[in-house]
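2024-03-11 09:14:02 DEBUG pipeline.ingest accepted 1 chain
2024-03-11 09:14:02 DEBUG pipeline.ingest length=385
2024-03-11 09:14:03 DEBUG pipeline.predict start
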Amino acid sequence: MAIKTKYRTIKTKIPVPASRTRLLEMQKYEAIEMCNHELPVVWDKAEDFQIYDRWGNKWIDFTSGIFVANVGHNSPKVKTAIFNKAKKNLIHSYVFPNEDRLKLAKRLCQITKMDQVLFTVTGSEANDAVLQMLRHNKKGKILSIKGAYYGSTAACRQIAENTIDESSNPDNFDPKEISGIFLQTFRGRNAKFMPYEWVRTWVKWAQENDVPIGFDEMQSGFARTGKWFGFQNYNIQPDFITVGKALGGGMPISAVIGKKQILQHSGDLWSTHTGNPVCCSAALAVLEIIEKKKLVEKTAKRSEWFGKLLRDNFPKNEIYGKGMMWAICTGDPIVTQKVIKKCAENGLLLVSTHGEAIKIGPPLTIPDKAIIEGVSVIKESFEEL
């Protein structure tokens, strides 16, 4: 096999024979699911919208590293912010104040029009913190989106016990029994947005009944949907949101952002690496890049074009999404996984959702020509299968 274009180069069969040793070692020393979740591509470096291994193979990245690299992999500005902070001999400060943490908290409140921020490290930690804050005053149910993923902690998994979906009507619920409502703009397994009027109805009902309502913005935040945050597509103002992934540009940082009435119950929900100065510095650089490059506006402008490109190339498939978050529905998880594997062999990386949708979310900095080429790879892979 030999594929070489401007944006992708595949010199040998995937997995590379030389990489098998690494993969076998990983399977020996790491938890097995860490090794088996994604395809056997051993990353060596990543730049903007491209991934490289040590053996001369190069891929177009349609995953953004699971929607982390909104401003591109290894953005020079983000790297400079990290290096400069390390040069100042401050790579950790526990929960003692640091200047970048203050700047970041203030900026996030300004962008979201919220009151306060609780910094955390992972998305699961941020969502877990919200669940604990919501239950502080009322020991009731916390409603979540059916089929959505909120994290790997026990509390995040338990909220799947009380779910709502597009057929649920808030009038069928007693607000006295509900501690809060935790929505998502779209489910993580696909890019199908929750219905506009449905979301607005739930937000109106919750706020009229003094039930806190908010959004998990881990994947939909930071210009991904053509808005700063996914909830803004519904012209509403929630009581809280949780953010992570793209916030750090590759560094581990997340946060709960919300009204003071909720954040006042944060107690000791911070942890050892909360508000790490290096991570805060990287996050500030991410926000500056989004603003200076006008990525919110550019993503919104490309939304219709991207959707049309997919519908023209896959007229028999259901296509859904917005901004730079799209999906091609195959209707069959096995077919989806086969296409994803074939795409990797042809120079394109996709997220293994293990569902019916081929999910597409490249860095927002990717040029149009690379998007067109990536879509052509998916089409070719369909045809090969």
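2024-03-11 09:14:41 DEBUG pipeline.report The radius of gyration is 21 Å.
2024-03-11 09:14:41 DEBUG pipeline.predict end
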